[in-house]
Amino acid sequence: METALKSTHRVRGFLNQARMLIVLIVLLGIFSALSPYFLNLKNVFAIGLTISVIGIVCIGQSLILLTGAFDLSVGGIAGLSGMIVAILTKQYGNYWTWFFLGLAAGTSIGLLNGLFITKLKINALITTLSMMTILSGVVFLVSGGFAIGVNLPSFRFLGTTRVIGIPLPIIVLVLLYAIFYVILRSSVFGRYVYSIGGNAEAARLSGINVDRMRILVYTLSGLLSGLGGIVLASRLGSAQVDAGSQYPINSIAACVLGGISIAGGEGNIWGSLIGVAIVGVLQSGLIMVGMPSYYQWIATGIVLLAAVYIDQLRKS
Amino acid sequence: MKDEGVVLRAENVSKRFGGVQALDSVNFELRRGEVHALVGENGAGKSTLIKIICGVYTKDSGRILYQDKEVDFRDNLQARMAGIGIVPQEIQLAPKLTVAENIFMGMYPRGRGGLISWSTLRQRAQDVARTFNMEKFINAKVETLGTGHRQLIEILKALVFETRVIAFDEPTAALSDEETRELFALIEKLKSRGISLIYVSHRLDEIFQIANRVTVFKDGRFVETRNISEVTKPQVISLMVGRDLNLFGGQRKSAAPGEVILEVQNLCNGRSVQDISFQLHRGEILGFFGMVGSGRTETAMTIFGVTPPESGDVIVRGKPVRIRSPIEAVRLRLGLVPENRIAQGVIPSASIRNNITLPFVERLSRLGFIRGGEEADVVAEYIRHLRIKTPSSAARVNTLSGGNQQKVSIAKWLASRSDVIIFDEPTHGVDVGAKAEIYVLLRTLADEGKAILFISSELTEILNVCDRIFVFRNGSIAHRFEENRGLSEESVIKYAIGTVDAHAS
Fold first, then answer.
1. pLDDT class of A1 with cuts at 50, 70, 90
2. What is the rounded average pLDDT of the residues A93-108?
3. What are the C-alpha distances in Å from B270 to residues B88, B279, B306, B311, B471?
């Protein structure tokens, strides 16, 4: 009986993700019917590369959603980290030093988010929304409003290297998802993340250091967003001033689509990966069939609304 | 024989929710001017029946006769207009509005131009409130009133129309004993005006105090209706659960308690915790009795670090400690089973396993990763030990009954080997069978050498379970009963409500 019930739980979770996988396949089918180039290997890798950046950002967003909160600053952090690395590398060379500095910047901003939210008790939405706006401004300030291109092989290493034909960012993405899947599933940290999202007060009364865990997930989200931004700059060969402006909505849409509840405590990270793929395919598919880019935004907004609505239906 | 006249009769009423047969062809009869108690375990169908009578739910089949006419109310307002009111379990008032505005919610009197006529509203509210000396509260905002008064407002709402029947759903669940007594006085008044009352409650003492007749439901079926004067409490309980139950926790095994494990000296925290000192021994159950807000829960929360103390000392196992958060309390192997199970005690969306090991999962881990086999063993042991009814440790806690959820909330402290455990109203909202199990469990734990702090506003269970009883009033300990032998309810309650001076004895 024990195993029977356990497996029905698993089956239900699997069915949910299987459903999303079917949505993904249907989307692929539609777009490849509309555009003959859609499913060629080059384009698949192009989509994979786009997904890999937002996918890395989505890991952090998943952690935060699982604790029952949001991070709207992911795009700002990605933009700033990419910009810092680009400017400093262009000026002084020596890419890998600045690579780590860029990661440290993202991590510190995440830490700051966490401290504001737990120690100053500022609402998480407001904290991260403000941070997003501040960082967008800072990126303009340090770049002078222009994209910063860097023509060094080291700068382009992360974004353009291929291993047995597969782009490196895609490999990084899959590895990170595997690592965080194991962490969320079997580590004490993962258990606390789910517990806080399920009922923060009960977790606190059970002796969990809720504030410390919240700070930790925001710090991790900062680190991962920073990494995403740096990979993006490397892939494009330049840091854009508006890089990451759509990441908050895209990442939340992808995670919720993948089954992470906005109330926290439910869902898993494989779902987020499928969600990211759906959003990515939808967006590049719309471009491939010749729709102007702003249709992406309309589509993403609709997808997020639909995903949250489905989440509610599932609950009731 | 006018008093014997039947005002309301339910015949063969059935109701199904999804796969659950909530009511299976039940009968119920209410006479004019009687208090008719409706009892049964959780899920017996009591609330479902009164919600059908009051138009909140619609029945699947059967008949409801009200004043000899068949009725079928579409919604609660129809029922109210016909003279059937309900005082719901969860009080549903708008806190920012005044009492008058709440009483007439949904039917404000209109004046010229369709605008609300506030003067008429206040006047009519005054009239309704006068009967119960509530006039002075008419213009007060609901948020400024206590739970007891809020309940009165629900009753006033029911009295706006010419009311013949009022159904109460667990009315005393959130009331202190004093407020409960006020409510009972009010019920007597309603009775004397010829109003009939349906009274749903878990608390048998209350039923024996105020009801004329009692009807027992079990698993959605009608069991029996009896005159209250012709049954005893144990008989009603055995009708409810289908077997005999012992509500005594049992006596302490050894005559003398063990060493002092928790000592509190001059603990202060605002107005609700003033200069509290006491010692808690291994092997004993110490009861904290008092009204809601008397300082018992507040004292426990202060000790546990939820609201750290302003001053005073806490000594655990002989060592002075400073507990500034539950993190430190748990590290010192203190446990708290909080009052509000769903909001504080468990994580409803998480599995039984995750809930039980939450306080000590770090101890079950290596290099940050949980050792699954070891965890499964511990969890299985406590599911068995506490007889948690579940098909699997992977089942979510929100799929369990109230009593089993409470067992999960308790199990985590046993599994984490806490030896000082604070229970705050552990039997709130659990059925009588689970209640009896919890009492026995408390005694077993004490006999195993744990120290139990038992907080309750139900005097009966305090007297049935505890070795020593401290009575709280206005943030201090009003009286200490160093042994619980031959105490009457009156002798304890008088300290809680302050009819004797705390220092006189």
1. very low
2. 96
3. 34, 21, 14, 10, 19
CA–CA separation, B126 and B105 (whole Å): 15
**pLDDT for res A16:** 65
The per-residue pLDDT for B245 is: 61
Structure tokens at A80: 């700033």
Contact between chains at B344 and A208 (C-beta distance less than 8 A)? no
Structural contact between residues A272 and A59, judged by C-beta atoms closer than 8 angstroms:
yes
Low-confidence ranges of chain B (pLDDT < 50): 1-3, 501-505
**Number of alpha helices (DSSP H) and beta strands (DSSP E) in chain A:** 13, 4
What would the mean pLDDT of A107-115 be, rounded to a whole number?
A: 98
Range of the domain at A276: 15-24+41-311
User: Is A195 within 8 Å of B329 when comparing Cβ atoms?
Assistant: no
Q: Chain B neighbours among A 239-278 (CB < 8 Å)?
A: 265-266
Q: The whole model's pTM is what? A: 0.78
Adjacent-strand bridge partners of B215: B38, B225
Token output for B349? 């969306």
Residue A246 belongs to domain with CATH number: 1.10.3470
Q: Which residue has the tokens 């107005």?
A: B271
- Best residue of A201, A206, A260 to probe chain B, by most B CBs closer than 10 Å: A206
Domains of chain B: 2-241 (3.40.50.300), 246-333+419-505 (3.40.50.300), 352-412 (no CATH)
CA distance A79 to A85: 10
Residue from the list B329, B345, B349 with its beta carbon closest to the beta carbon of A265: B349
Would you say residue A193 has pLDDT above 70? yes
The answer to whether the Cβ–Cβ distance between A205 and B392 falls below 8 Å is no
Contact B285, B454 (CB under 8 A): yes
Chain A residues close to B358, C-beta within 8 Å: 191, 195, 202-203, 206, 208
Instruction: Please report the ipTM that was assigned to this predicted complex.
Output: 0.88
